[in-house]
## 1
Amino acid sequence: MKPTITSAVRRAPDPFAGDDVIAGLRAPRKSLPCKLLYDARGAELFEQICTLDEYYPYRAELALLEHHLPAIAQAIGPSARVIEPGSGAGRKTRMLLAALDRPAVYIPIDVSAEQLATTARELGTELPGLQVAPIAADYTAAFELPVTRRHDGRTLVFFPGSTIGNFEPEDARRFLVRFAQLAGPGASIVLGADSNAEPEVLLRAYDDSQGVTAAFDLNVLAHLNRTHHATFDPSAFMHRAVWDASRSRIEMHLVSRRRQIVHVAGEPIQLERGEPIVTEHCYKHSPQMLEALLRESGWRTRHVFPDPVGRMRLWFAERPDARP
Ligand code: AVJ
């Protein structure tokens, strides 16, 4: 009897299923996860970006912290537990921990394990009374908080730098809800957010005259050549910053200078001349949008501290079950 041909074609499992890199490069609007920007070289280049005149968010927030941390520390009280997603090199962290009254526990969470280890070691030496319990994890995904020594004080989530702007609004809400749950009853959050909407200022900040941001962006290709055996030629791409006023976001693009085929983990990716790969969204939520985001995520805004030009703000909020 002739074997019957069934219609169901059994597909070999897609080797790239779940690989957000390939998924992003296969999408009609090509994109890459922005966490790829932060390998060791990327983290170095971001440090440089923070020293640039054009990149105002870093300096503006530093000045806000200098000015308002004493009042925030007063409100938090002694023996606090500080949780910091995406801890980076820690200059702002040091300012916070120095302002707090004998903080008990510090939990930095970062994908860059090397940077995490350095920060933890240094802070452990600088603040002997502080227990540092680092977690090498992607804080946008689920993870467990480490069991640490008892702390009688409040829990504070510290999320500076306008990194909240890298999330799509729905993901930002999910992130804030999850950290409200993780931090527990009575917790507070200090969040830095840029609400600037001046296109010329923004485009200079995300495409600086020295080309540091361009190098930061193009470095993603070198990263993928290493991690995904890709065949990107960075000189065949150029960096571009785009302001999308309708969505209040800056986009970083890597634009293909010519028609080309790049192989990523053996998968051919065709790019047309002028075709962009989106490497980062930086939402510049209005203050109203930010207040709503916090409220809808279980955080009640207690104070908002704007910078003198009304771009960068420090948001100090707490869970409604926080005691006064
Ligand atoms: C670290 C995410 C806050 O969005 O301003 C800087 C990253 N990208 N220049 C930002 C970034 C381009 C930065 N964050």
## 2
Amino acid sequence: MSATAPPLSRDLIDSLNAQNLAALQDEYHSLGRVLERRGCAIDAIKQRLLSFSLAQPSWGTGVGGTRFARFPLAGEPTHFNEKLEDCAVVQQLSRITPRVSPHFPWDKIGDARAMLERATSLGLRFDAVNSNTFQDAPRQALSYRHGSLAHTDAAVRAQAIEHNIECIRMGEALGSKAITVWIGDGTNFPGQQSLSSSLDRYLESAAQIYAALPPGWSMLLEHKLYEPAFYSTVISDWGSSMLAAQQLGPQARCLIDLGHHAPNVNIEQIVARLHRFGKLGGFHFNDSKYGDDDLDSGSINPHQLFLVFNELVEAELRSPADFDPAYMIDQSHNVTDPIESLLSSADAIAGAYARALLVDRAALTEYQQGNDVMMAFQTLRRAYNVDVTPIVAMARYERGGAIDTIAAYRQSGWRPRKARERRATSSGAGIV
Ligand code: LRH
Ligand code: MN
């Protein structure tokens, strides 16, 4: 296997870490003493973080936009190779993002073997592939204007099914083990489509994609309340998604995108329910204030992210055997440098997991059994109130990453250098 050639100089990271190490060790050991008084070994938490990892969205390395506008960033990636380079920078600094989730046809991979070698040389692997039947690709025969897998026209459904099967084949060549199927199919007007027949058509199409899954592969169904359809969406909630996954079979599971729910929905309870029924397939981590805002994870509602991981820690304790949800980031970086947002988000997600690991589960169960409401709540809040930054940073440092990722990234001059090397991208509107 060819040696990996990380994009940033090792010396840069080492010299910056040398400046930060003493402070980190001091903070780590003093937090260790606090946690020890609570009967919790800080090294045990760090150990769990050392096996925690996330996938980066290839589409998150470029600047995102809205329907109103997209404001390009000089030096942003212009094709898949450059997206992988930027993912490698995030991985080299964070050390918890070793996988990339590609999106087809946005990512033109050409020769899959060459792309796999390229990714491997950058220290990256591929996670779930994403199909796209929510846009019309250039030279596409039939339009998805009125839907795709649930379209009334069998020829359009066949085209969408074929695309998903192509994505699986490309994924196989890249070493992926899952396909994420999100469709925007739905209606803007009452009466526009039969709410029942459209689901029947979706299930019939999804069954054909399911039949093409290689052994050991997962088909992750991603529900979404609305957008691009604004009256009804075929797979609009976890219930529809779970029932569809149950009907499809054991390789079909449900993916929770944190931004795909109505405001104030109890997403952590959805996590518990999907796990209870063996259909918790994975996550698209992000944050939102209003709709599917695709903001940085933990930037708006870090407590919700903590509560989601609290359910994940409990789920793993309840049945470790079938607990392997895919952890992926899905964000749109409209006003920040995408690399900085991915670094900040990876840190927030690891922090939420570390806090959830600090919950005194024995005490919690006792207070819950005894209906000591306040102490049950306080047990969770006590863990949430811990600043776990030293644990997350120490785990990252021990994996060879940067103690201060954003400072290291800025010190590297990566973006200005890429702005000189890479061609400018066009402005315009739209998600990517
Ligand atoms: C839909 C979605 C889906 C992706 C797209 C980029 O809102 O979350 O996961 O395909 O964003
Ligand atoms: Mn998503």
## 3
Amino acid sequence: MTSTQNNPAIALTIAGSEATGGAGAQADLKTFQQLGVFGIVALSCIVSFDPKQNWNHRFVPVDAQVIADQLEAIGAAYGPDQLDTVKIGMLGTPVTIDTVAQSLASRDWKNVVLDPVLICKGQEPGAALDTDQALKREILPKASFVTPNHFESLSLSGMSEISTVEHLKEATQRIYDASGAVVLAKGGVRLAGAEAVDVFYDGSTLEVLRAPKVGEVAVSGAGCSLAAAVTAELAKGATPLDAAHAAKDLVTRAIQSRVSSHAPFDAVWQGAS
Ligand code: PXL
């Protein structure tokens, strides 16, 4: 059945569920909706924090065939003329990465926004080595836009330290040179100072995006929402730089409007503005 009465921009996120609703696919969909974009999800994994174990991550990958099935259904429902923009969030295992890479290759995408989620807050970096390598090998070359956080910028740039804005600028240039993707690297609370600084680089324009820091503690879903907002704006036809600015604005407001719970971290709220 086709109806052309409504014609919103459409964006897909391939992401994990984070059950408490702060991060992952839930954050992506809320962000898409807030920016007037019709959101679609292919679920890659399910994360359920464990309140009995210090809110550690319990991670369950979605079966590879089920991921492929979701992407088959989505691709059949929405042709490339309707859906040309995809965000990739937490994939979590090399098998999932393989599956997603194969599905992505079955059509041309205008915008592939990669939030290169390696580990979540509180996880051990070493646990993600094989995932890290598979992501770099199989997904990063397909990305047109990448949004690394501090830890991911270290990994993708090969730098041993990023503690100043100058370091972060160098990281964006290195990541661009290695990937060809537009880079929006997040300083967040990891860089000292009164401002939350992100650096944008597209091969020619290097721009520092600044907003007053809202506290010194990371808020759940900020990174997911930033990449989702970039995705939504690109789906609507914005330039990468305009998308980055709009995303920074949305996330700043979403952090200011954050929601507290009995979990040890607050969650962003995109809907307040
Ligand atoms: O914020 C990174 C992230 C992304 N996706 C899922 C997550 C998390 C962190 O908890 O659970 C599903």
